[in-house]
Amino acid sequence: MTARQLDEQIVGRFPVGRRLRVLDVGMGRGAQALRLARAGHQVTGLERDAEMISAARAALAGEPEGIRERVRVVEGDGRDTGVHFLPGSFDVVLCHGVLMHVAEPDPLVAGLARMLAPDGLLSLLVRNGDAPAMRAGLRGDWAGALAAFDTPRPADDSDAGARADRLADLTATLAGLGAPLHTWYGVRVFTDTAVDGAHVAHGLGCPDDLTTLLAVEERAGRTDPYRGVASLLHLCGVRG
């Protein structure tokens, strides 16, 4: 779902056929980086976990030479982008699933914003700080729901130690960094217990059910009030 949303923003912002310079901070196993490289973009993946880097390089090795040439893997921490790259070096900067593991996100987001060229796109995927109380309440965990109103951490063990961010706080942060929020989406509005497509498909009766589920998630992810209580938020800021 995040990939669909990202593609929508890229198509709406950049000329068709333009080869973009993309930075993927916390690239993990490289799924997003490879997808964008296959689309013709030049992608730099920044990752600090050695196991993830090995997995990303193994996946990259299985790609055709033309795609391999469009991907560069850099070992490093997302908080040190200024050490590796010059300001304004990228048209698109991705940081998906990283902020939730950083105690103080503002310096990281500031570094990401500095990497953007004018009119560049910043894509953040974060845990939604307004969702844990809803999730706990739907499970009948009233104590957990009450606690979740006042904590940036999830009210369950779904991601132990992870933080959550609230939309209003990140909106203010992005505005202060000169990359104000352009649009935002909810991710995993109804499918919070499904961690991947295989799990979703396993629980459904036929492919048509999965297609319908994805259509519901896509619609809910851009529609109020549903997107406001999604498990994750996908924020897209634009460098002024």
TrEMBL record:
GO BP field: methylation
Leader peptide range in chain numbering: none
Keywords per UniProt: Methyltransferase, Transferase
Domain Methyltransferase type: 23-123
Cross-referenced PANTHER family: TRANS-ACONITATE 2-METHYLTRANSFERASE (PTHR43861:SF1), TRANS-ACONITATE 2-METHYLTRANSFERASE-RELATED (PTHR43861)
GO molecular function, one term: methyltransferase activity
Superkingdom as given in the UniProt entry: Bacteria
SUPFAM superfamilies registered for this protein in UniProt: S-adenosyl-L-methionine-dependent methyltransferases (SSF53335)
Protein's name according to its UniProt entry: Methyltransferase domain-containing protein
CDD domains: AdoMet_MTases
Pfam annotation, one family: Methyltransf_11
Organism of origin: Streptomyces hirsutus
